[in-house]
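Structure tokens
________________
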Amino acid sequence: MTESPLKNIDRQIIKTLPKTDLHVHLDGSVTPQTVIDLAKEQKIDLVQVSKEMGIGDLKTGDKNELEEKIFKETYDSLMEYLVPFEFINVVLRCYEGLKKASYELAYDNFKEGVRYFECRFAPQKHWESDFDWLDIVHAVNDGMKQAANEFNAKPEIKNGKEPEFKYGIILCGMRMINQNMGKYFRYLYELHVGDDLQNLAAMASYETAKLVQICREEGLPVVGFDLAGREDGFPAEVHKKAFLYCYEHNIATTCHAGEAYGTESIKSAVKDCHVRRIGHGTQLFREKGLCDKKHRDGSPFSKEEKEKYISDMAEWLADNRIALEVCLKSNSQTLPDLRDLSNHPIKNFLKYRLRIALGTDNRAISRVSVTDEYERALKLYNIDKKALKNLCIDGFKASFFPGMYNEKRDYISQVIQYCKRVLEQV
């Protein structure tokens, strides 16, 4: 007997379900009020920052103005969506700022039933001459550890009735760089003559990959490496040296791909860079992304050949358990053709039984929570109880868990039992 879709499930049940967020950026999750508070503590004039960076054209720098001009409801493109990050990062270049932002991100996640999440950020955006690499990662870890300890002190966690709240950290390399991204990238510009931007970005991402290994040796819960930023004109294969370093050192990897470009971008990430997860992947089924695909003799692919090429790629992703980090609200903001989320390719992801990990991308910039994303998916995509359970558990299975494999298996087993108990209420 076929189960009915859960279109009107109670929001409180969604909040109670054990969930993950494997794709959430730290700097994109700092609220306008926290930006204002941190700027005040650090004696930073946000209006002056806006003027110097050419971002937002602020007049007062109050919360309403930040929500209107920086944390906007809609954006015209991925490029425009990425602009506010550099403004926010101005207040995240000291221990206190990073710790506070990290604590609030972890607390907000745990408060809505996210049992495990992976916070990602680009450490080079936060570097200062008196705020070094390990200091940066320690600040993030200290904030998240504080929130985890608070939640894990609850009796239902300590007596084993519910799974613990856990987290991991992912360090990001950047596909593209500019001088507004902090002193590190500004110095990179000034100290290298003749190097194009992509070579400098690749050099920086390789350093980030090495930092992941250093952090792991220090015992920090840094669980992976990501490549973030604009796809158009900035291919992942330029950063193969960083990904190869990760492969050789058994570092888990993910990559933003298939957000602005299609199947070929995703294929490059998984085949050239050996990634285990794809950030977004929304363009996977778009034939338009294969407009230049040709046979060896130079003849273009037919429509049927393009469809088969895409289908074969989807099957390969499913068979190899390559997870897609899906962020619905964010996709609707950065991709004009997905303003109507009923058109989102998650329907095809579910059809091919691809491993999906629902996430937020940027809690503050996208004005979204994990619960919102689940509620949105249930209303739009005919998800029944079995599919909802799979959606929850797939995030845990796809995680770069900060522990031994057997520990991950035991944790997931506990999560599955808890998920079943919650779903019995439906």
